[in-house]
Amino acid sequence: MIRVAVSGCAGRMGKTVVDAVGAADDMDVVCGIDPHGADAPFPVYASVAEAVDRAEFDVLVDFTQPDVVAGNLAVCLPAGIDCVVGTTGLSNDTLEQLSATAENGACLFYAPNFTTGAVLMMQFAKAAAPYFPEAEVIEFHHAKKKDAPSGTAVRTAQIIAEARAFESSAPGAETEIEGCEGARGALVDGVPVHSVRSMGYVASQEVVFGSMGQSLAIRHDSWDRTSYMPGVLLGIRSVGEQQGLIVGLENFMA
Ligand code: NAD
Asked: Which PANTHER family match (predicted)?
């Protein structure tokens, strides 16, 4: 049994992780951590330091806030506890500094996107990119999303640009119609990226490729938070055999 502690267990993602880990037959939630407390059938501590002092667990899963995640990892990694992190906002430098503090071969695993489908969408886009002169990314998110374009859309555009040895011939040239600036999207490494914000969506993305007489669309839809759980469980199962810093779910998707 893998003993799991869920940091941010009262939050939207944390609650979903608690349910997913509880439903898996090879792991258990031994405690939660959340300063807001939580109504749970396991002990809930106010801080990660308190949890490390009072409970024993193999893996910390962290879905908290950008301003607290580094502090949580700075407690667990020197204590030799593997960490599976979804909280956004950690720079590469910070991740590397934190992983250097790990003891006893502890692993720091960070995935900017835990949906297996989004990772595959990027891999398929990489495979298609050399064969299509045109490529555009359209991402669709709920209206409350703060940033645009999404991190996944930016990463997809970068992957497409890296995978092809040419520049698109229709790279988002600006419209000539006054007042309609931006109609061709934002250019990320020469790839037009369009951001839709609307009720009804959680997180979707379509990558559209064009060539002579043919087009190819690769689409991924994430309809609710359970879509992240296969990736989170894969991370929990995989970190025990790893050490050091690992970024990206693709590392565990054979
Ligand atoms: P949320 O606000 O619903 O939950 C965050 C929880 O963390 C809250 O309950 C809060 O009380 C708790 N918290 C605050 N400080 C804490 C501390 N020091 N220790 C432990 N818990 C603490 O947020 P959410 O929607 O669940 O998202 C959490 C994070 O996950 C965000 O950064 C979000 O961007 C990220 N996220 C990542 C992915 C991914 O695939 N990587 C997917 C969805 C969300």
From this structure: 4-HYDROXY-TETRAHYDRODIPICOLINATE REDUCTASE 1, CHLOROPLASTIC-RELATED, DIHYDRODIPICOLINATE REDUCTASE
Asked whether 34 and 60 are in contact (CB, 8 A), the reply is: no
**Residue 158, pLDDT score:** 93
22 token code pair = 């509880």
172 vs 50: which has the higher pLDDT: 50
Residue 60 beta carbon below 6 angstroms from any ligand 1 atom: no
Return the sign of the alpha-carbon dihedral for residues 242, 248, 251, 252: positive
Q: Report the distance separating Cα 175 and Cα 186, nearest Å.
A: 12
The catalytic position among 145, 146, 194, 220 is 145
CA quadruple 48, 49, 54, 56: dihedral sign: positive
Residues 6 or more apart whose Cβ sits within 8 Å of residue 128? 135, 207, 209, 216, 218
C-beta of residue 34 within 8 angstroms of C-beta of residue 62: no
State the DSSP H helix or E strand holding residue 151, giving kind and residue range, or none if neither: helix 151-163
Whole-prediction pTM value? Answer: 0.89
Q: How far is the CA of 87 from the centre of ligand 1 (A)?
A: 6
How many Å apart are CA 114 and CA 236, to the nearest integer? 12
Radius of gyration of the chain measured on its C-alpha atoms: 20
Q: What pLDDT is stored for residue 174 in this prediction?
A: 76
